[in-house]
Specification:
With about 625 residues, this protein is α/β, with parallel strands linked by helices. It has 21 helices and 13 strands. About 5% of the residues have low confidence.
Length: about 625
């Protein structure tokens, strides 16, 4: 029993640690035929003009104490763009960290370069966030210089939108909601007067120095969502063509090979990406585009003390080449991977290779449940697994398709003491057929939907379906409390503020506390209800339910965000499977808290296990 559980956990961790090895991490490749080659001649030569725009923008920004909307509109109009502005306001549920304000107001400015050879059905976006202070002035200067260069070309088949969004993610979300005519976060805006076609791809640019030593790419979006791998491959290909040093997770690339330092670097990159995904926080403005199925990445210029420097002209040529390749797309990016991990920019790990590692971790909980399930519980679990397979366990299964009641009987010859001959078996079948011969109509008065813990007991559909309903209710409640800005959280806040004298932020905290405090009563209630037989029956039942709950919760999290499901599983699974109320309670509770990160205790099953250990009598 214990060997199988330990082996499953070790294999899961070992599988994950083996992912950076080259046989499991093949080289990236371009799947989209329209972007398969970088053989385009970039003609951008406006590097000095970009720096001039940057200095002018920084001066006007310092003069007005914020984003110079009027200057941006005037400059974009002079470049021949169709210019629009979008005022917006957002009431924050919590005050921001810098000014402790609840109301944020800002203005987005964007210019549209209409494609001369198309009917404005598709578009590309180049965005620059306007942050407080002198940051990102060079990025805006480069964007205006690119707009001037793109305006003089005639090969564009897609509209190009040059967007300057204020207040970073708040401004970007306001613009995206207005562009797609939705309101998910209750942003107040005047709407958009100008629209282009359906956005195919977007690039967010962050640059705060005149020269850079490398370009770092950010891919992690909201809740760990990732762009299509082909967009990242396109960026990597043009960086190699123009001699740009490109990085991911802020780490320099290392020479590849089978050496231990190369493996350690790949593992470090892999773990950094897993941590970034598990946080659920977008690592750039591109993360909000991914919610609308728009492939996007964020490019950040890094200026360190390295010897080689790259000017605005080189960066402009790289962006020009990327946009010219994206301009050739005949459909959305879809041929490459959407679920992957990156040990480096030149190698990737597909979902088919990293999901088995999580599967072995969850197998620990399933094995623990199956080994603990004795007698009726074990039989019940085996029946549930057999039903879930969907495969008939005998020829009788095909009779059931025609509403003919049937069973399959199999003779088992084992080493037990008692043996039965053919006469006994024949008498049993004779009796069954004589009883069936007396039927006046089809069998219909008994149950068709049931589970069997044993041949002498049954569980009807009215008793086992509520268990499924409660599990689904738990997931709905979790989504409503964890989904920031989602309809469940907003509805819960409104209901609480209407019936209790609390603010919306206080309502969220108090509701979560109430749910976890209610879980403290479960060990006592279970002890009273299930202590008719063995003293271990009650706590084992509660722990089995908690383990089932934990396996379901981690499985759902891994399907939505692999990193968010696998990181807690690596620490929560062994602790949850090992602790019992038998023994020193304080020591076992401390083990559960230490082995399970504090944030992971927010998972309700771990909370139940902790109180099961501490409060069981």
């Amino acid at each position: 029993m214990y060997y199988a559980v330990i082996l499953s956990y070790v294999v899961g961790l070992g599988w994950f640690l083996a992912l950076p090895c080259q046989p499991l991490a093949p080289r990236t490749y371009m799947s989209e035929n329209a972007m398969g080659s970088t053989m385009v001649e970039e003609q951008f030569l406006f590097g000095e003009r970009a720096l001039s725009y940057a200095r002018e923008f920084a001066g006007h920004k310092k003069k007005v104490g914020g984003m110079p909307v009027a200057w941006l509109e005037k400059t974009m109009w002079s470049l021949g763009l169709e210019v629009h502005r979008q005022p917006f306001a957002r009431t924050l549920p919590f005050p921001d960290e810098t000014r402790e304000r609840y109301m944020v107001r800002g203005t987005n400015v964007y210019g549209i370069l209409r494609a001369p050879r198309a009917a404005s059905t598709e578009a590309l976006v180049l965005s620059v966030p306007c942050s407080e202070g002198p940051q990102n002035s060079q990025a805006l200067g480069l964007m205006l210089a690119l707009a001037a260069h793109f305006r003089s070309q005639i090969y564009w088949a897609k509209d190009i939108i040059f967007l300057v969004n204020e207040h970073d993610l708040l401004g970007m979300e306001a613009w995206l909601e207005a562009y797609h005519d939705v309101n998910l976060t209750e942003v107040q805006s005047s709407g958009l007067l100008g629209r282009a076609g359906a956005i195919q791809a977007a690039i967010s640019l962050e640059l705060s120095s005149d020269v850079v030593t490398s370009i770092d790419v950010a891919v992690e979006g909201l809740n760990g969502q990732l762009p299509n791998l082909d967009l990242l491959n396109l960026f990597h290909a043009f960086c190699q063509k123009n001699g740009l040093l490109c990085t991911i997770q802020g780490k320099l690339p290392r020479p590849e090979g089978d050496s231990l330092p190369a493996y350690a670097h790949s593992l470090q990159m892999l773990l950094l990406m897993v941590l970034a995904q598990a946080s659920g926080w977008p690592r750039g403005d591109h993360g909000l585009f991914l919610r609308y199925r728009i492939e996007a990445i964020t490019l950040r210029g890094i200026n360190s003390f390295r010897q080689y420097k790259y000017d605005m002209t080189t960066l402009g040529k790289t962006l020009e080449g990327m946009f010219r390749k994206l301009n050739n797309l005949l459909e959305r990016l879809h041929q490459s991977y959407f679920f992957y991990l990156l040990p480096s920019l030149s190698r990737f790990i597909s979902i088919g290779l990293y999901m088995p590692a999580f599967g072995f971790l969850i197998l620990v909980l399933i094995l623990k449940i199956s080994f603990w399930g004795q007698g009726g519980l074990q039989t019940l679990l085996l029946m549930v697994l057999a039903q879930a397979s969907g495969w008939p366990r005998g020829d009788h299964g095909l009779f059931l398709r025609y509403r003919i009641e049937a069973i399959t009987l199999r003779g088992i010859n084992s080493f037990r003491q008692y043996k039965y001959d053919m006469t006994t078996l024949g008498k049993t079948l004779e009796g069954m057929f004589r009883k069936l011969n007396n039927l006046l109509e089809r069998l219909h008065q008994s149950y068709f939907f049931y589970l069997l813990p044993s041949l002498s007991r049954f569980i009807s559909i009215g008793l086992y379906m509520p268990a499924f309903g409660f599990l689904i209710l738990v997931l709905i409640l979790k989504i409503s409390f964890w989904g920031q800005g989602g309809p469940g959280a907003v509805l819960g806040q409104h209901v609480a503020t209407q019936h209790f004298p609390v603010s919306e932020s206080e309502a969220v905290v108090l509701t979560v506390i109430a749910i976890y405090l209610a879980g403290m009563a479960l060990p006592h209630n279970t002890h009273r209800a299930l202590t008719g037989g063995s003293n271990d029956r009650g706590w084992m039942t509660l722990k089995l339910l908690a383990l089932l709950y934990l396996a379901l919760l981690l499985g759902c999290l891994a399907l939505l965000n692999f990193s968010l499901g696998s990181l807690p599983a690596a620490t929560m699974v062994p602790a949850a499977a090992a602790v019992t109320p038998n023994g020193p309670k304080v020591l076992l509770a401390a083990l559960l808290v230490v082995a399970t990160p504090f944030l992971a205790l927010g998972a309700h099953p771990c909370w139940l296990l902790l109180w099961n250990v501490l409060c069981w009598k």
